[in-house]
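STRUCTURE:
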């Protein structure tokens, strides 16, 4: 699974159903590329199209239970791999990494909060007049 595929599924899981145009913008890909990705994910049963409850002319992309299961399995595998890698580090390197993370984590959290407040992260109904999300 490509990074863009995993990121798109995770975004849908985190933020809920979204317009195809908003997904493309959020993932930094061209709309035709996102259309192809969504079609592939639909064929795999990982996403489905649903009507927008606020505008029946619009179709949203939503993650399925199967998509959530795939994400959960990928996360478990990633966590196990990371745990193995960390356990293999010498104690002094583990302590150094821990100190670096304690410094970096508050900065990353602040950056994400700033992006959320400034509207840099696309919302579900971004671009309401764009016809690509319509049925």
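SEQUENCE:
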């Amino acid at each position: 699974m490509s990074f863009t595929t995993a990121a798109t599924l995770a975004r849908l899981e985190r933020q809920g159903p979204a317009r195809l145009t908003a997904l493309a913008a959020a993932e930094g890909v061209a709309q035709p590329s996102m259309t192809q990705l969504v079609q592939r994910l639909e064929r795999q049963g990982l996403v489905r199209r649903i009507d927008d409850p606020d505008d029946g002319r619009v179709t949203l992309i939503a993650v399925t239970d199967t998509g959530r299961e795939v994400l959960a399995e990928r996360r478990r595998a990633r966590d196990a791999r990371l745990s193995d890698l960390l356990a293999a580090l010498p104690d002094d390197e583990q302590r150094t990494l821990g100190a670096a993370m304690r410094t970096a984590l508050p900065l990353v959290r602040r950056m994400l909060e700033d992006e959320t407040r400034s509207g840099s992260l696309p919302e579900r109904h971004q671009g309401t007049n764009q016809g690509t999300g319509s049925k």
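REMARK: Strands lie at 47-52, 55-63.
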